[in-house]
């Protein structure tokens, strides 16, 4: 059996053309949508790859930073040790200098002088105290220290008679007088 078409040929062609263009439009929309979805996924993939690269880079920087912090901590510990050793060396040098000073004073000390104490004050002045058998010996000792060239200044702060012992017996004779002089000398290095 044969189909009979009562429509005009032009209207059939027009209808076919509209169907074809609507199919083309749907296919175009689908292709554009698919391309957009693929583009979005591609952008997300590239962004994810970039973020992973950045995370790896930051992890390496964190490792490097932690190594730097470790080195800084070790450096600070070594610096503290060096400072501590430096203070010990300074104290040792100060003790040696005091020892040399006392040794030099002992070498210059004449017969008749007995040093009973020495004290170093906060300003670095050395204060000697002692006894001398004669005032001239005490003054001579002070001058010897002053002219030694080892000290900036040597001052005899005090020199006084503390005892004079005379042993006189009934006949008017006896032991000669024995005098003792107390002295304080201040020495600045």
UniProtKB/TrEMBL annotation:
Lineage top rank: taxon: Bacteria
Classification via InterPro entries: Extracell_DNA_Util/SecSys_Comp, PilN
Pfam families noted in UniProt: PilN
Residue ranges of the TM segments: 25-47
Key words of the record: Membrane, Transmembrane, Transmembrane helix
Record flagged with keyword Transmembrane helix: yes
Keyword Membrane: yes
Stated name of the protein: Type IV pilus assembly protein PilN
Organism of origin: Hathewaya proteolytica DSM 3090
């Amino acid at each position: 059996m044969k189909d009979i078409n009562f429509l005009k040929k032009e209207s059939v062609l027009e209808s076919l053309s509209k169907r074809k263009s609507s199919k083309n439009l749907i296919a175009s929309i689908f292709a554009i949508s698919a391309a957009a979805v693929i583009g979005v996924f591609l952008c997300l993939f590239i962004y994810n790859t970039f973020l992973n690269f950045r995370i790896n880079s930051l992890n390496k920087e964190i490792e490097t930073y932690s190594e730097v912090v470790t080195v800084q901590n070790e450096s600070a510990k070594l610096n503290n040790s060096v400072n501590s050793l430096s203070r010990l060396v300074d104290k040792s040098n100060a003790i040696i200098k005091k020892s040399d000073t006392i040794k030099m004073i002992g070498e210059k000390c004449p017969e008749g002088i007995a040093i009973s104490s020495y004290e170093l004050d906060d300003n670095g002045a050395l204060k000697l105290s002692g006894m001398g058998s004669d005032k001239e010996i005490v003054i001579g000792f002070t001058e010897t220290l002053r002219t030694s060239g080892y000290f900036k200044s040597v001052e005899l702060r005090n020199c006084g008679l503390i005892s004079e012992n005379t042993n006189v017996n009934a006949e008017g004779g006896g032991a000669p007088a024995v005098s003792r002089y107390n002295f304080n000398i201040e020495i600045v290095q």
